[in-house]
């Protein structure tokens, strides 16, 4: 059955509210991709950073976790997104009870940045900081923190499959609802900037020298980003729904995608089949679009084979950065925002932001530009979107999201 995506909370490099993120997307803003000198071990890198001032919105009295330990950056991002859905959750918790509320969070970094800082002090002084505890960097920490915020007593856990983590969290939430193990699930992803990821991807020769340029001829890599994106998912009908989802694993290589996009294509086809739609019926596809040579090449092939050359598509990572474990939920959330009449009354879609010319050697796909967007909005309202997330090891997921009357 389709599952209702009842509400959405988001914070990323584009802003800390649904309205701010939508405005940035439709303006093609790159303001959140900033040059960082602190995280890289060597040359500065562009990252998608949430401004420090954003964290001033942390609620008084919630500066620590239930053990009295300082919140990690991951927890803080999660709290900022949670506050945007709290009013929607309150009556649902009252109706169904805390035992019927579940939490599923996708992440790949958790609180590892605090582990990095603690280890640095340990090496310098011989002692860990007083406010540090190993649990701060465990994968399940943010999920439990969010559960504590609303006193959820149903299943609470994390999923960590690299860049597909939070897309898979939505599918896991769907399974909990369909199995009647919960009536409401808070599902999404949270990942924060850390030296581990910024320098790790640099070591893999995967980071861009400038702001990332998805699908451009001169594309050379990604910008690591951070985000929190949380959905309230229920069994209700109507509104914006998760219509279809499919997961595949092509297992072609530890860190490189299948060159022909074999697993990516099967994920897209499976999601379309579950949604009972043809590829040509999708109004917009939010591509994984990392800006690496191999990803964009294989994804263009998969997109062409799944949806043809007419369906509008593009990457939004040129505005948010690649938010790793949060990317699946963030980009599904971008589709949710585009489908929502309050946030996108003109039914526009974001352009594929890039500084370079489109790579004409790629399979022919209809990357969004200003002209194509104007032509689409003159024809019809947005009804259905697809979101792709592809991870290391060929760990793929595609989601179809649409309006249901």
Summarize the structure.
It comes from Moritella yayanosii. With 405 residues, the chain is an alpha/beta fold. The chain has a single domain (3-404), classed as 3-Layer(aba) Sandwich (Peroxisomal Thiolase, Chain A, domain 1), CATH 3.40.47.
CATH class: Alpha Beta
Low-pLDDT runs = none
Indicate the structural class. Answer: alpha/beta
Distance between the termini: 15 Å
CATH architecture: 3-Layer(aba) Sandwich
Instruction: Let me know the CATH homologous superfamily.
Output: Thiolase/Chalcone synthase
Strand order of the largest sheet: 5-4-6-7-1-8-13-12-9-10-11
| CA-based gyration radius | 20 Å
EC number: 2.3.1.179
GO molecular function: 3-oxoacyl-[acyl-carrier-protein] synthase activity
Protein name: Putative 3-oxoacyl-[acyl-carrier-protein] synthase II, fabF
Domain Ketosynthase family 3 (KS3): 1-403
Can you walk through the features of this model?
This protein has 405 residues and is α/β, with parallel strands linked by helices. The chain has one domain: 3-Layer(aba) Sandwich (Peroxisomal Thiolase, Chain A, domain 1). The chain is built from twelve helices and 13 strands. Strands 5-4-6-7-1-8-13-12-9-10-11 form an eleven-stranded mixed β-sheet, sandwiched between helices. A two-stranded antiparallel ribbon has the order 2-3. Residues 1-403 form the Ketosynthase family 3 (KS3) domain.
